[in-house]
Amino acid sequence: MQDTSSPVPLMTFGAPLLVGALLAAAILMACHYAPTEFTMGHAQRIVYLHVPLAWLGLLGMLVMAVCGAAYLSRRNLVWDHWCQAAGESGWLCSTLTLATGSIWAHEAWGTWWEWDPRLTTAFILWVIYSGILLVRSSQEDPHRRARSGAVLAILGALDIPLVVMATRWFRGLHPVSPEMVPAMRLTLLTCVVALTVFFAWLVHQRRKQVGLEQLASRLAWRGDADF
């Protein structure tokens, strides 16, 4: 008998279950497995959220730049759908990076904000994200929106090495390579993996939604034209 089962249920239910399991494991490890840091106490545990979010903020901009370059090369709007999905998800991660970073700074440095090189370059990344999304939202023509978004994303990606190397190139308050016991490193790695998988799933879901929105817009335009 021929197998007529569809892989759709696996993608529909399997991916969220995997994401949920990874996030649950990350939360348990961050709250219970990782030892309490001697100096900052339990406040240090926000690092297990802050660091993955910072990584995903950079990843989102990189994905935007790659998809933007692919659109400029092939003029296929599917690449722009990926660009928009990555941009919106990356903006969210960048915003949460600044928020969690401020909480950590308050506990570690006694202030909510310092113009530390890492914080400053991360803030610049957030401004770039916001500018790209603002420009995209102001363009009605899909291809014009895709072109402007692609060019800005490629230029915005130039901030990535500045964020990554800020603590090495400039003096600041951020530690260059913080010391962690093995249990802390394993917990941080688990959180990075879990949130990266969640980010990939979120971008994929948003990309499908953007495609459906574009299709609905084209159908509505054709309906108005026929009328």
Structural overview:
By secondary structure, this protein is mainly α. The chain has one domain. The protein contains 7 helices and no strands. Helix 2 runs antiparallel to helix 3. It is globular and about 65 Å long. The N and C termini lie far apart (50 Å). The mean pLDDT is 87.
Note poorly predicted spans.
none
Radius of gyration: 20 Å
**What is the count of structural domains?**
1
Helix content: over 70%
The overall pLDDT average reads 87
Structural category: mainly alpha
State the separation between the terminal residues, measured CA to CA.
Answer: 50 Å
What are the secondary-structure elements, in order, as H or E?
A: HHHHHHH
Strand content: under 5%
Characterize the largest beta sheet: strand count, sense, and whether it forms a barrel.
none
Overall 3D form: globular
